[in-house]
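Q: Okay, next protein. This is Inositol-1-monophosphatase from Phototrophicus methaneseepsis. I've checked the sequence twice, so it should be correct. Can you predict the 3D structure?
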Amino acid sequence: MDYKEAKDAAIDIAKDAGKLLMAYTQKTLAYNEKSSTIDIVTEADQAAEVLIVERLKALFPEHHIQGEEGGHQGAASEGADYTWHVDPIDGTTNYAHGIPYFCTSIALATSACEPVVGVIYAPIADELYVAVKGEGATRNSEPIHVSDRTHLGQCVVVSGFPYDRQTNPDNNIAEWTAFAPKVRGLRRMGSAAMDLAYVASGRTDGYWERGLKTYDALAGVLLVQEAGGIVSDYAGQPKPQDRAEGRYLASNGHIHQQMVDILMSARQK
Ligand code: IPD
Ligand code: CA
Ligand code: CA
Ligand code: CA
């Protein structure tokens, strides 16, 4: 498989999705609730997913497509050698409220769910993050690297809260509370893919979140790995995408074990 062709296609498509998302910001958006009132999908999520999926299907008919909004009918079935994991808007709550922190995230992964191409485009900042397995990571074509901070007290770490937090006691409050006194900055910014891209580019130093799906995470996972960082589950085990609970921990590597220790002890209390 030629990853360059896949990378170039994903870049073009993510940028066109970004234009579509910017056009929709001029309108009053129609939206629907999904699992609850805090979990919404807008007409722009759906239109962007259709755009992305139709283009991918035409270019790579032999690939499976996994998109958040389910608009992937007609693509090759599960079990194909490669799958595209597509999040048309990561950060829908921000997008719908006019908060300029959201992106389109597109990853190509093997049948073993190993990402090989990751593209994240944030249209408001006009930032394009790209990673190819074994070839490094870039932002707007410049190489990016994780930070070199080693002391948590000098670090900014980021997390997110799952949509089932109103009913599921595994709601991230214990973990959040455990980190708060230990770090320079603690942030909930609202887009898992962007949060991972920020770790990859050294703007932040670490990130954790439960309940991520492959379309939220895989492009950002590859970015962090190709930028020299580490991705694991909360216990430090690799490939969190293999486990249904979707607990992701990403960091610059230097603070990884410290983050594992905090997460493990918070979860035992
Ligand atoms: C969500 C965002 C958010 C994270 C949620 C995700 P969506 O994705 O990434 O930051 O906390 O877990 O589901 O719904 O905006 O695509
Ligand atoms: Ca998402
Ligand atoms: Ca989404
Ligand atoms: Ca969503």
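A: Here is a summary of the prediction. The pocket of D-MYO-inositol-1-phosphate (ligand 1) is lined by residues 68, 87, 89-92, 160-162, 190-192, 209, 211-212, 216 (CB under 6 Å). Residues 117 and 132 are 5 Å apart (CA to CA).
Q: Noted. On to the next one.
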